[in-house]
Amino acid sequence: MEPQIVDYYRSKNNCANKEPVVIYKDEDELDRLKIEAYGEFYSDLQNLILDVDIRHSDFMFIMENLLHKMLKDKEREISWVYGKSGEIQDFIVATIEPLSSNGYLDYDIIYNIIKNYIDKMFDPEESYGIVKFKCCSCNELDDYLVDGGCYDCRHSDNDSFEEDYDY
Predict the structure, then answer these.
(1) By the 8 A CB rule, do 165 and 158 touch?
(2) Closest CA relative to residue 122, chosen from 15, 18, 31, 25
(3) Which is nearest to 54 in space by CA: 85, 14, 77?
(4) pLDDT-above-90 percentage for the chain
(5) Which DSSP string do the residues of 118-131 spell out, in sequence order?
(6) Do 19 and 128 touch, CB atoms closer than 8 A?
(7) With contact defined as beta carbons under 8 Å apart, do 143 and 125 qualify?
């Protein structure tokens, strides 16, 4: 293989495994998108036959669709979604097998497991770093805003305070 082709595939694989970043205006926008995406996901999930389709590509497709919506990826360009969907599917299959054999399997259980899994990924306070918000003052990206401002903008006037204050 030519070195250029090898470099292309290496960079493509590295990008596929790296968590993407999605920019939301604020937590309200994130919450609205979650409600919409989870509602559609729940509806799609109920169209599956749990014991059969959970290991099928139809389940993968609705998982991918949910993640693309959460990432605001209308063109479906973020390849990270496909690997993450497979990871979630493996987790679900391992989790539901004991439930299924004991007769406890239902759509709500699967939905709640997936929702909790994805909520944790998209929680700005978690370590994934997927969710970023744009500061209203400086336009920098941050994972936490208060009244639209990032930490630096909210505390920028403290520097002058510390200079005036005699320790």
Answers:
(1) no
(2) 31
(3) 85
(4) 31
(5) HHHHT-TTSTT--E
(6) yes
(7) yes
